Amino acid sequence: MNEETLRVLEFDKVRQVLAGLASSEPGRQRVRSLLPLASREEVETSLTEISEMVGLLAEGTAPPVGGCRDLRQVAKRLRAEGGWLDPEALLAVLASLEAARDCRGCFRDREEAPLLSALAAGIADLKELRRQLRESLGPRGEILDGASFELGELRRDIHKVRGRIKRTLEGLLASEALAGVFQDRIITERDGRYVVPVRTDHRGRVKGFVHDESASGQTLFVEPAQVLENNNELRSLLRQEQREEERILRRLSEAVRRQADVLLENQAILARLDFVGAAGRFSRQCGGAGPRISGTPLIELRGARHPLLLCRPDGTLDPAGAVGIDLLLGAERNTLVISGPNTGGKTVAIKTLGLLLLMVRSGLHIPCRAESRVHLFEKIYADIGDEQSIEASLSTFSGHLMRIKRVLDEADDESLVLLDEIGTGTDPAEGGALALAVLDTLRERGARTVVTTHLNLVKGYAHLNAGVENAAVEFDSETLEPTYRLHYGIPGASSAFAIARRLGLAEEVLERANGYLDEGEREGLELVERLNRLRKELEGDLAEARILKERARQEREKRKRLLDELEGQKRAILEKASRRGEQLVREAEARLKDLLKEARGRTADARAEARLAGEARAVREDVRSASRVSRRPARRPTRVEPGELLHIAALDTDGEVVRVSGGDAELVVHGKKLRLALGDLEQYSPPRFAAKKGGSTVRGRVERERFEPKLLLVGKRVDAALPLLDRFLDDALLHGMREVEVVHGAGEGILRRAVREFLVGHRGVAAFHSADVARGGDNVTMVELRG
């Protein structure tokens, strides 16, 4: 990709956005040097790394690279003969070493991020160098006493000598014999020697050396003779301390010099991790994804948005800041012609396409849906904007031609060409003819081309040639507002007259303008407008059909689910009844055996014993028969009334009639609605009716019809919230909902944990997760229900 294309498509502004998301200067340098990658393997590796980083960021894990510093100048200074580092530079090295250690620990054994884990594993720990620097330097760059034994001893001696000097001077200041001699009772320092302020008119009373006098001349700063030797000793110790500190800095610098190459390698890895972190934050903030890479030259960008249109004034990104459009150029097509009115979004569309492809080629996620696919074109050319130049004697048309000439010289079958307003800037007939010749040439070269135009000649070219497709930007002629969406298969009307009319241009002028159009042009405009109207009508019908189809599908699933539940309830009831019957039979048999034993004990009459045994057998058979007998309704329904109980033979249960429509009846069975044909039902004789419950059935139906897939639990206690949640999930299952949301708020997290623990054990819940940040994040739980 040449620099001209990068500039035209505003790739550098994307670099600036990413640089603002990086945490360290090396990371920002890595972003600023970002360019399209050479191979598909590099692109796919980068996209995978960013996907791993997005997952880690979602968990709250970010690469701890903020302490990384740019050590290239440090290494350059150390390569110079006799070069050594000051404490500030050594602190930068230490910060980078600690950032390297933290990153190694952060990404160690991350199974969910294997590429990032492998990348971080290449960081050298350099424990010994880090230990030396940490033991020798304080947080402000001061050299610590423990940096060497000698330095510690020198500083202890310095402390002692200073103490002696101060005690001697304090004694002089407090002396009664010298009262009134000193201007102030303070000890100060001049040229590294401790002195006291003596009034000029008493200079002879304190023996010593005068080192300075005040600006007013009223005060002399005298080093008393009593501290002369101690001051000399202090100066000597301070010089020794300075030499020892320099020796320590040279020793530390030498240790850094030995690891300079490793430090720069670490910096490169940390910069890479910082870059991936910035790209991951960008992807999360703009709702981006890594599209699949296709080996076939095609473009399928779904819900694509221009990244710079997502930027808020404060520099953050808003996923809803731009309308998503579908940019499609299938493998069977080689040219896309986008037309429509001014301000409709044609230029934004091709800029979005070019910029997003450059970003993918650079290994970045882009603002689009995850199912998008793109090809990695080796070359991308863009002729967008006005290239007029007075200095170069170029008109707008000449500027476009110069660019197009370069494109035609270089384009091949691995090229994508973006041409804005092709054929404009000159006579429409000649410009249109030249545009068609350019498109023919590019198609012969095998290049993929996307152009915008107002020329009807170019629009017609798309209808007459296989492999070329028209697309129209949508524009509301009533409101004069663009929708920025693309519609494929039809050309877009320029709508110049409609816009002029809405803006208040006189009708007389518009009629005159219309008169200058020949019959063919008027018919062409009317045809395009008619096609656009038909397209809107068809889209409305299609949307309505999709809604009805979805409702029918939900009703089918709901009916099937209810039947399955009723069948399960039937089996449970029958099994329970069967077990109860068997238990009664066993109890009756045991009782009869006891009676027989008692009878044998009371009589020896064989005939009486036989009679009792026969009666026992008869009772046993009667009990068993009774356990198997179930009462059945006598006849098919004839005249049915609401509230009547009908028997459902297939389910062996009763249902209450809610209403009858034609040959079907709507019934309530165990609190659930069911619609069945009257021929599948049986009527009791005499008819049976359900007990009245004060209109609860009607209220239940109204509540279900007004069901909202959102439950608000904010501010409720756990013991009050869980019953509401249970009832809410049951209603959602009855209505065939696939996903609902539960708003529980943040607080201390008690209610959120209770809600999610309840969801784990609910049989109707397939999965649940926190909502997107735009919908509430951890304050809201999204619940996926079983179909």
Q: How would you characterize this protein structure?
A:
The structure is a single chain. Strands 10-11-12-8-13-14 form a six-stranded mixed beta sheet, with helices on both faces. Strands 18-17-16-15-19 form a five-stranded antiparallel beta sheet, with helices on one face. Helices cover 50% and strands 17% of the residues. By secondary structure, the protein is α/β, with parallel strands linked by helices. The protein has six domains: 3-126 and 259-286, Orthogonal Bundle (MutS, DNA mismatch repair protein, Chain A, domain 3), CATH 1.10.1420; 147-254, MutS, DNA mismatch repair protein, Chain A, domain 3, CATH 1.10.1420; 299-506, 3-Layer(aba) Sandwich (Rossmann fold); 543-628; 644-699, SH3 type barrels (Roll); 707-785, Ribosomal Protein S8, Chain: A, domain 1 (2-Layer Sandwich). The protein starts with a helix and ends with a strand.
Name some characteristics of this structure.
MutS, DNA mismatch repair protein, Chain A, domain 3; 787 residues; 6-stranded mixed β-sheet; 5-stranded antiparallel β-sheet; 50% helix
Explain briefly what this protein structure is.
The protein is an alpha/beta fold and 787 residues long.
CATH superfamily of the largest domain: P-loop containing nucleotide triphosphate hydrolases
CATH topology of the largest domain: the name is: Rossmann fold
Based on CA atoms alone, the radius of gyration comes out at: 44 Å
CATH class of the largest domain: Alpha Beta
Q: Give the strand content.
A: 15-25%
**What proportion of the residues is helical, as a percent range?**
40-55%
Specify the CATH architecture of the largest domain: 3-Layer(aba) Sandwich
The main sheet comes to: 6 strands, mixed
The end-to-end span amounts to: 49 Å
Give the integer mean of the pLDDT values.
Answer: 83
Structural class: alpha/beta
Continuous helix count: 22
With strands numbered from the N-terminus, the spatial order across the biggest sheet is 10-11-12-8-13-14
* Domain unit count: 6
The count of strands amounts to: 23
Provide the low-confidence segments as ranges.
Answer: 388-393, 627-632, 694-704
Q: How does the overall form come out from the CA principal axes?
A: flat
